[in-house]
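User: What would this chain look like folded?
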Amino acid sequence: MRKLMLLSSLMVLLLIVACAPKVSDDQLEKDLSTLSPEEQSALLKQSQSDNAAAGNAIASRYGASDRTQLVRVLSKMRARATQPKPTQPVELKQPDLVVKSAEVSYTNTTTNSTGTYVVIKATIANVGTNTTGSGFSTSVITLPAALNYTSYGWYDAILEAGKEETKNVWYKCSEKDKVDSVNVIADYGNNIKESNEQNNDKQLQVTC
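Assistant: Here's the prediction, encoded as structure tokens.
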């Protein structure tokens, strides 16, 4: 009698499994994703260790077609979860020098036997994420470079990230009653390794 009851129970389980609606692996994975990683691992272990009939019954409980599908999907999910995550590239902190502003002051214009001089006021800023680490030169030159009569400028000490420095320099006009095109260049000697080497200058016009 006991054997008959056991056989009947087994047949009922098989019937339940056979009648269970089949789902795709993607849908099953979506349903199983509500389980915690620990619950997924425990369910995978149980499904693999139980006999086929019991395993199929467990699979049916979770909506899988059979134990094979449940084990396949769970194995894929756990393998993906344990894969090492790609490391994010480390952002290299570097300075970035820019000529924040440059203007001519004509209030202090002076003329002597050597020529006419005006004051150029320039602000150099470090908009990067690191200190310059060392000093650098800022130059004021006449354009085009072939007409570079004289290079004027100054030497800046170390400039921390987010800081700026403003200085004045006397500029000698090339000729009287002439408009000079002038370029103010931070790190003229290109001694500082920056995150952007293309934004180090600013041009302006000087009316002599």
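The radius of gyration is 38 Å. If you want, I can go into more detail on any region.
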